[in-house]
Amino acid sequence: MTNLLDLDPPGLAAFFADRGEKPFRAKQITHWIHQRFVDDVGAMTDLAKPLREALAAESRIRALPAIRDTTAADGTRKWLLDAGNGNAVESVYIPEDDRGTLCISSQAGCALDCAFCSTGKQGFNRNLSTGEIIGQLWHANRTLLADGTRAPWIEHGRPPITNVVMMGMGEPLANFDNVVPALRLMLDDNAYGLSRRRVTLSTSGLVPLIDRLRDECPVALAVSLHAPDNALRDRLVPINRTYPLTDLLAACVRYLERAPRDFVTFEYVMLDGVNDTDSHAHALIELVRHVPCKFNLIPFNPFPGTEFRTSPRERIVAFQAILVESGLVTTIPGCRTARSAVWQPASWQPLLPDAVLAEAMSCADLTHG
Ligand code: SF4
């Protein structure tokens, strides 16, 4: 039985063409599923009854079922989704005044085994299908609307989720063939209609697939950097042994030739005594000298058995100050953006409580992006 969530716009067009239906049926169905969030073809009242009956017999609309649904005091909401065979993935909704962001998973587990990542320690289980990926966005919008979530843009008829970050469990580019159709649905005006600037894919650095993404669906790009030299990055992000920093940064420059943003976001997890010294910061500045970029400094979220500790807050702030001094836009999640050399430590104020930050971090293991 076909899960209609698995079909991107060309896939839906082919699905209806195979059944002798007109191409506009694909747009109608896309609208019902991805803008009105229905899960029952019987509710699609502008389709002829025989077509609805045929669809009901051979298709379904099903996202991964939620097995846990928790909301923090500030509204951050995490869904644990059952991926079958004892596997679970997460999606996390992070509300802010001017946007609603959803962090999405692309794989159950991950094969890349980054040293600081709890997902990597679990190993790889399987790729999520297109329907299981886009279904996280569908489910979040549908649930938030059903729960009466309020935001100014919702009152103007837009769905609750305005931004998507592919920073949850898994390396999205390692599941390229399922991720890209999901991205296309996010961008399609008949579906979610998000601009490419509002959809960010985070990768650990699969260079050939960064090039392919640039050619096929250039959304905003984030890269898990985490180290300023190959020796340290080989240890923290093992895929660096295959695609070392010179190749990775060259791919970033090529990506920007077609990217919707004029910069790459480099994610940098702050590991106490490992990658957080002043000399690491200065080496980073040298490393990215020719790449338009911004940095996101992420406090490490410890997990049982890890060898790492998070850098003290004062160290993260001092590290940020060095990057900012050089002209690099550098943020710490939950903190005010520091944009210039006139940045002052006294202006640093958490916008989110630590508990919420920890919640958001565990989605991305945000280390991944
Ligand atoms: Fe995989 Fe990302 Fe974790 Fe690395 S950081 S192991 S790529 S999920």
Which secondary structure elements does this structure contain, and how are they paired or packed?
Layout: E1 2-3, H1 9-18, H2 24-34, H3 49-58, E2 59-60, E3 66-71, E4 77-84, E5 87-96, E6 99-103, E7 107-109, H4 118-122, E8 124-127, H5 130-146, H6 152-155, E9 163-166, H7 176-187, E10 199-203, H8 207-216, E11 220-224, H9 230-236, H10 245-256, E12 264-270, H11 278-287, E13 293-299, H12 313-325, E14 329-331, H13 354-364
Parallel strand pairs: 1-2, 6-9, 9-10, 10-11, 11-12, 12-13, 13-14
Antiparallel strand pairs: 3-4, 4-5, 5-6, 7-8
Helix pairs in contact: 1-2, 5-7, 8-10, 11-12
This protein binds iron/sulfur cluster.
Describe the fold and architecture.
By secondary structure, the protein is of the alpha/beta class. It folds into two domains: 2-60, DNA polymerase, domain 1, CATH 1.10.150.530; 66-366, TIM Barrel (Alpha-Beta Barrel), CATH 3.20.20. It has 13 helices and 14 strands. The chain has helices at residues 9-18, 24-34, 49-58, 118-122, 130-146, 152-155, 176-187, 207-216, 230-236, 245-256, 278-287, 313-325, 354-364; strands at 2-3, 59-60, 66-71, 77-84, 87-96, 99-103, 107-109, 124-127, 163-166, 199-203, 220-224, 264-270, 293-299, 329-331. The chain has a ten-stranded mixed sheet with strand order 3-4-5-6-9-10-11-12-13-14, with helices on both faces. Strand 5 (87-96) and strand 6 (99-103) form a beta hairpin. The protein is elongated. Residues 336-367 have low confidence and may be disordered.
Short description:
With 369 residues, the chain is α/β, with parallel strands linked by helices. The chain has 13 helices and 14 strands. It folds into two domains: 2-60, DNA polymerase, domain 1, CATH 1.10.150.530; 66-366, TIM Barrel, CATH 3.20.20.70.
